[in-house]
Amino acid sequence: MDHPHKKPNEVEQLKSQLLLKVAWYCLFLHAMLILVFLFVEVELLALFNIFSVATWWFGIKLLRKDYLSLALRIFSLEVTAHSIVVCLLIGTDYGFQFYLWAASCLLLLDIQLKLKQAVSWCTAIIIMFAYTYIGFIPSPYQIAYHEYAPYIHFLNVVVCGIPMIYTIGLIREITINQRKELEILAAHDSLTHLFNRRYALGLIHRAQQSCVSQKTPICVVMADIDHFKRVNDRYGHELGDEVIFRVSGQLKRHLNDADIGVRWGGEEFLLVLPNCSLIETQQRIENIRQAVEAMSFQADDLCVTMSFGIALWHPTQSFESVLKYADVALYNSKHKGRNTLTIAPESALT
Ligand SMILES: Nc1nc2c(ncn2[C@@H]2O[C@H](COP(=O)(O)OP(=O)(O)OP(=O)(O)O)[C@@H](O)[C@H]2O)c(=O)[nH]1
């Protein structure tokens, strides 16, 4: 069984890789801080930073083993505890309280944490940040080189700002990518990557309107793989799927950018060819027919052919009517013995 903290998908993998870089950056930062605190003679904090380096090291190990959520919680806890301890010891002059903002960002990246929980924790951390200005001064420590406090403060704000910008940027990137993926999934058939029926209807409508306004022809083609049931029965469903996939590949190869290729049903396809006359359509479909017939498969004796029904879409016709004409023409192709194309007689109307 999967560990509840184990990452589930590709997005999380990307997040994990990027976080690994941040974790290394933090590990080196804490290692540097050991020297800084020794230099300013706050040995207790130097000691705490050794503990921090060990925590980041452990977190990196967790990330490498794909325990992203657990690693994020440990990082966030470390950053929170560290900021509070530092502020308790040396006050807020040095700006270490800003690491509490970075801790919140880390928590927000943990998608296994429910939004309510994440927001509650982050709110608590930010309240703690605000409280450091009231309750954590004056500093009990007399620090050497106190005059450098504003510069360290400045540096800390910059260093903390990076994870914040980074987190928001990462969330933005993930959201954009996921939206693109969803759009593609919603528009396409998963086996053939042709448009699915529901999405294609809008495209077809727009293409037809554009052809009507430009007074250019548009053709509708129904295409169906011949005796496909036999392919499934004889060679199995898996090879049947491969046939559908390869046939779709041939269709796509012969379509232009403006054309619309749709998986209309199981082994049935709809092609809409804007700005294409009946003669041109006939020629292009004949090329597809020949290309499909010429395909070879692992099973040597398997020969795949397709039948087509072509209809010219007159501006006054509805989509339903032209589809019916193309469908009847396809039926006629099947009736004629298959592996052929038929033009709907209604196409001759002007
Ligand atoms: N492998 C596979 N088979 C499918 C898929 N979708 C539909 N089918 C099968 O396609 C077959 C279609 O058969 P029919 O409609 O009888 O038509 P046909 O055998 O192609 O005969 P004709 O159209 O008359 O040449 C059915 O057996 C369906 O189960 C699919 O996605 N994958």
UniProtKB/TrEMBL annotation:
<dbReference type="GO" id="GO:1902201">
    <property type="term" value="P:negative regulation of bacterial-type flagellum-dependent cell motility"/>
</dbReference>
<feature type="transmembrane region" description="Helical">
    <location>
        <begin position="148"/>
        <end position="171"/>
    </location>
</feature>
<dbReference type="InterPro" id="IPR043128">
    <property type="entry name" value="Rev_trsase/Diguanyl_cyclase"/>
</dbReference>
<feature type="transmembrane region" description="Helical">
    <location>
        <begin position="46"/>
        <end position="63"/>
    </location>
</feature>
<dbReference type="GO" id="GO:0052621">
    <property type="term" value="F:diguanylate cyclase activity"/>
</dbReference>
<feature type="transmembrane region" description="Helical">
    <location>
        <begin position="22"/>
        <end position="40"/>
    </location>
</feature>
<protein>
    <recommendedName>
        <fullName>diguanylate cyclase</fullName>
        <ecNumber>2.7.7.65</ecNumber>
    </recommendedName>
</protein>
<dbReference type="GO" id="GO:0043709">
    <property type="term" value="P:cell adhesion involved in single-species biofilm formation"/>
</dbReference>
<feature type="domain" description="GGDEF">
    <location>
        <begin position="216"/>
        <end position="346"/>
    </location>
</feature>
<keyword id="KW-0472">Membrane</keyword>
<dbReference type="InterPro" id="IPR000160">
    <property type="entry name" value="GGDEF_dom"/>
</dbReference>
<feature type="transmembrane region" description="Helical">
    <location>
        <begin position="70"/>
        <end position="91"/>
    </location>
</feature>
<feature type="transmembrane region" description="Helical">
    <location>
        <begin position="118"/>
        <end position="136"/>
    </location>
</feature>
<dbReference type="InterPro" id="IPR029787">
    <property type="entry name" value="Nucleotide_cyclase"/>
</dbReference>
<keyword id="KW-0812">Transmembrane</keyword>
<dbReference type="InterPro" id="IPR050469">
    <property type="entry name" value="Diguanylate_Cyclase"/>
</dbReference>
<dbReference type="GO" id="GO:0005886">
    <property type="term" value="C:plasma membrane"/>
</dbReference>
<keyword id="KW-1133">Transmembrane helix</keyword>
<dbReference type="Pfam" id="PF00990">
    <property type="entry name" value="GGDEF"/>
</dbReference>
